[in-house]
Amino acid sequence: MIAYILRRLGQSLIVLFIVIILTFTLPYFQPHGILAPAYSVLGSRSSPYNVHVWAYQHGLLRPYWTRLYEYVFQLVVHFNLGYSYKQELPVSSIIALYVPRTVWLALSALIYTVIIAVPLGVFQASRRNTAIDYVATGTAFILYGVPAFLLCILVIDLFGFHTIHLPISPPEGVAPWAIFTDPKAFILPVGCLTLLGVAGISRFMRGSVLEVLVQDYVRTARAKGCSPLRVLWRHSLRNALGPIVTILGVSIPALFGGALIIESVFNYAGLGLQTLNAALTFDVPTVLGITILVSIFTLLGNLAADLVLGIVDPRLRIGGSAK
Predict the structure, then answer these.
(1) Where are the domains of the chain?
(2) Which architecture, in CATH terms, is 97-281?
(3) Distances (CA, A) of 55 to 35, 38, 51
(4) Which of 202, 255, 298, 314 could form a disulfide with 120 if both were Cys (CB 3.0 to 4.6 A apart)?
(5) H-helix or E-strand containing 273?
């Protein structure tokens, strides 16, 4: 198991290093290249001389490899994600304000997604090709195909103006833990993000359970007289969870991507809304810093999924220790 963890950790570090190099290099390909921040900050005063002086003062004219070394060193040693010339603040300070809000939003949606999608997928598999299965499958396909922003607008129109009149936006400037102190204000954004996740996970869960139900050991359990519920929940569920654990691990980027749209529509000051504002104002350092942070969360999610998968499926631990 230790060798399995170390191998996955090494692979994650290699991927993270590649992401860091790409995020550092991308600004060189924007309009005006690496001098773009100078043009953005100086505005109408961006004469060639002023641009050159500003870039020299901020170290943008140094060689690529020198800047790359300093960037990696500052990131690894001090977790310095750069400096936002637009907001005149370190990127880490900007992100620290918004990350807890988005993390609680995405984590709440993920928990509700698992609670709803896993039993729903198992129930559909046990009622395969029945009216309930067709209704649930059709609903999942509709939710899976509807754009996130359209779903949010429809939910706001339905529950904000025509039925039970829920708050259509969390309060401005709320604390990161406001999702617990004022849960009513977060019902719609968390609900929309949950629906987007349930649509996909329930379909994968249904297919995984159906694949397990035709295995020999399931037929053996039935032949020994096990009840249908025991066969379904004891013999089938654990073996069907493997693919779902992996999908949940790789769904973290989708959660943050969905949060970007959710926060924009519901005007919730989280990491997604900050990413959108930074992109619209060409605040490249902030966008790249958020990209690195989301990459780290993604790699941690994949690593956690691998560890949980090793617990759920002992065959992986045996294979990992044998190599």
Answers:
(1) 97-281
(2) Orthogonal Bundle (1.10)
(3) 7, 6, 6
(4) 202
(5) helix 271-280
